Amino acid sequence: MIAITRPTLLLNEKQCKINIQRMADKAKRLNVQLVPHFKTHQSSEIGEWFKGHGIENITVSSVKMAEFFARSGWSNITVAFPFNMHEIPAVNRMLKQNVKLTLFVVNTEVIHRLNEELEAPVNLFIEMDAGYGRSGVSTKDIAKVKKLAALIEAGHMTNLYGLYCHPGNTYHANSVEEIKSIWADVIQKMSAVKVALGSAGDSLKIRVGDTPGCAVVEEMEGVDEIGPGNFVFYDLVMNYLDVCTESDIAVAMACPVVAKNEDRNEIIIHGGAVHFSKDHLFDENEEKFFGEVVVLEEEGWSPILEGIKLVSLSQEHGVLSATPEVFEAIEVGDVLGVLPIHSCLTANLMKSYTTFNGQEIKHLESF
User: Fold this and answer.
1) Which residues form the D-serine dehydratase-like domain (predicted)?
2) pLDDT of the chain, 367 residues: tens digit per residue
3) Can you name the residues that pair with 340 across neighbouring β-strands?
């Protein structure tokens, strides 16, 4: 086992590549294009692992991330976030480098500004809200969609590429069947919008992007592209949703044990909110927890340990609550593994990965 001296995000490279392979194979089997979301790993090296599966187009969550991956050689990038018009200069810089960009729009103001200030054309998705309630034009508001579509097509710098939906309500589903039901509803609503656009909708692509749905849904008729991101690592949320197995999770935080409190059967680790984020789940007793504990091994980690959970986080501290038996077995100086609740946020905070052979894989924020 490599030496761990401080909180370290371990990456199971083999499992990560298996996860990528599985999603790429599924996209081919269902005849949809995989346009993976790189917001989870944010790594140029991990990005290279996708190229062996024929992936040429990617998705990111910010213009800054698009710039990073453009420098890494990617030339067809979707920025999956309602476009911030203040970043038009950055978009123009990438367009000058022959990067093909696809942006999200949800209002007329941004479309006008793009046509006034862009120096080369871009593709646009109209982001749709099919029930999640975060951002996007409601699939019920056909009049607004038609207005946006007409304005985009009339613009000399904007081309209407498609309709995009992120059904984030799948993350709150109570079963795999509910996830499938949400997707069926999304596909029906998105297809109806496309039909309502008449001839303008004939060539439009429909893209749906969320890991729960992309992982478990088998009926994707009407969808042209999928854009999941979390699947590259998975995490406890995905495991609790039955979207992945525990063994599919490809990252774990390695945290040194720094103290023990015998009065409360609590173990203090170096690993807090600045490492994990404060995303949490609830156990069968409706008690909040922030991670599950595993034993680190030479090339991986054990199944989740019973009788111990990460129950509290402050900035640098993590508090583990343990049964007396587990408490006695753990010593100050041990290094424990903790599976994250939300791998995207944990990876963003940690800014790099360490493989089992000690290789450091850097992340956007570490450059």
Assistant:
1) 250-357
2) 789 999 999 999 999 999 999 999 999 999 999 999 999 999 999 999 999 999 999 999 999 999 999 999 999 999 999 999 999 999 999 999 999 999 999 999 999 999 999 999 999 999 999 999 999 999 999 999 999 999 999 999 999 999 999 999 999 999 999 999 999 999 999 999 999 999 989 999 999 999 999 999 999 999 999 999 999 999 999 999 999 999 999 999 999 999 999 999 999 999 999 999 999 999 988 999 999 999 999 989 999 999 999 999 999 999 999 999 999 999 999 999 999 999 999 999 999 999 999 999 999 876 6
3) 291
The fold adopted by the segment(s) 246-366 is: Lyase, Ornithine Decarboxylase; Chain A, domain 1 (2.40.37)
The CATH H-level superfamily of 32-228 is Alanine racemase (3.20.20.10)
What DSSP assignment string belongs to 255-283?
A: EEEEEEETTTTEEEEE--HHHH-S--EE-
Contacts of 276 (CB under 8 A, 6+ apart): 253, 290, 291, 310, 313, 318, 338, 340, 341, 345, 346, 349
Domain segments of the chain: what residues?
A: 32-228, 246-366
Q: Are strands 76-82 and 58-60 parallel, antiparallel or unpaired?
A: parallel
